2OG-Fe(II) oxygenase
Amino acid sequence: MATLPVIDLTRPHSGELLEAAHDIGFFYVAGHGVPEELVTGIFEQSRRLFALPPDRLRAIENLRSAQFRGYTRVGTEHTGGSADWREQLDVGPEREALRLGPQDPRYLGLIGPNQWPTELPELRTTTLAWQAEAQRVSLAVLRSLALALGQSPDYFDGWFDEEAAVHLKLVHYPGRQSTEGEQGVGAHKDYGYLALLQQDEVGGLQVQTPDGRWIDATPLPGTFVVNIGEMLEIATEGYLKATNHRVVSPPAGVDRYSAAFFLAPRLDAVVRPLNLPPELAAQSTGVTEDPDNPLLAAYGENALLGWLRSHPAVAQRWWR
Ligand SMILES: O=C(O)CCC(=O)C(=O)O
Ligand SMILES: [Fe+2]
């Protein structure tokens, strides 16, 4: 069984990182320096969140948010046209909604506040602390990648200031009998630059290899899983690929938790192709063409399309 590479961020890793990002687009990072109490703390808060009574979760449902923030019930999110079997809390940068005029780009409507349950004040502080650490680690990986791609390490930095549209999700996958279906989340790519994932010990995350097989991203204590998003595929004209991945539902009686961070740029970022060194450019095979998932270079447009597609009820209510 093929396994994913481990990149240790405490020692030189440029060549290894480039190989992992090019060959499969999915790898583990160790030596990331995220404090252990935050790693355990985020799952503890997450368990408390999803154990709240249904009416308390409904009070922070994402249907109440034009910015797609808040709680999503099991079965209401769709990937590849089928319902995902997971519940989640979507969190973005904590900002006031803007007052927009008819000339403003629609995607600016994605800026706005989060929804937090009043009965769990620690959820907010722990989540925002975890978000800051996840952003630090992902940016470190992105800088190493920029360097390995023949750019200056700060090449991408301008798009990742305090207005970057980063996003995180606390996710709970309830177990079920395989006869009831097995789509925890359906096969998809992530649309930022990089995604960073903390998973518990249950397993179920699978990654598609270039030849179409699915391999397990087995939980590895002390690591995060990092994967390439669509924006890096565009920026490298396919030298790096946004890789398909999915989660298989845990068996009945088992619960799986994960925390996912998506390193996204400012909404007004426009992704331009990098000037790759010739030996890398020679291996760029172009951006994947998928009529169901057109990749737009304007980040805000791409992000809005993704949100509208995966949360049809929110789209219907706020974005008609
Ligand atoms: O929960 C996981 O392990 C993966 C989640 C994921 O891929 C996503 O939400 O984009
Ligand atoms: Fe994903």
Summary: The pocket of fe (ii) ion (ligand 2) is lined by residues 188, 190, 195, 245 (CB under 6 Å).
